[in-house]
Amino acid sequence: MQNAKRATISVSIGSLIGSLILIKVINYLPRRKFLYWSFLVLALLIAATGISSLYTFQKSTWGITLILYILGQLLFNLGPNSLTFIIPAEIFPTRYRCTCHGLSAAAGKLASVIVQILLQHMKFRGLSINDVKSNGHGYVLIIFGAALALGSLPAWAWLPEIQKPRREETGLILPSKTLEELAEGMKGVRERKEIIGFRERFSQFLRK
What was the pLDDT predicted at 183? Predict the structure, then answer.
């Protein structure tokens, strides 16, 4: 019961709020841009949570870490966790969409399994991460922050635009491109002369 209460407070509340917010604003967000920016902001937030954990471990100020972690869960589900599942369902050409979306989802689950296995064998300052006297989770969160920062790079470089701005009575919305446009895949991206790839994105960045 204690574990259920703690999980509800630290994980479920933030996750649920983040998902509900995304449902409300999904058509008003530029998904590609929001994905790589949320990766970066979340990387900073999770790293800050890890640092906070190291300093507040078994102290009366542990609430700071809890608040940061809840905010991290909120942003995680508002950004990368949801968008890395939504975007693959839109971005692949129709012929390969189900297969590629399945591979994309499976890659995320495989990474989770690998991390769980590694955590069982990790030690920080001579203590297993599962030892109640260990504050190793703080170091793990810092490592996760670095991984999230790396995740922003392919999102920035390799994701094409999947939305078209459109103005309606309610304001500017950003619905997805048509299935026909998305079905063209990389060929359509090149024909529309959209910028994609590290070299092209970086060259555009330098020109700005």
Answer: 79
**Looking at the whole model, is its pTM more than 0.90?**
no
Residues 6+ apart with CB under 8 A from 185: 92, 93
Q: Domain ranges in the chain?
A: 2-155
Q: Do the beta carbons of residue 94 and residue 178 sit within 8 Å?
A: no
Q: Are 93 and 184 in contact (CB under 8 A)?
A: yes
Q: What residues have CB less than 8 Å from 45, skipping those under 6 apart?
A: 68, 71, 72, 75, 145
> Three-class SS of residue 66?
helix
User: CB within 8 A of 171, min separation 6: which ones?
Assistant: 28
Backbone dihedral region for residue 55 (phi beyond 0: left; psi -120 to 50: alpha; all else: beta): alpha
Q: How far apart are CA 91 and CA 101, in angstroms?
A: 9
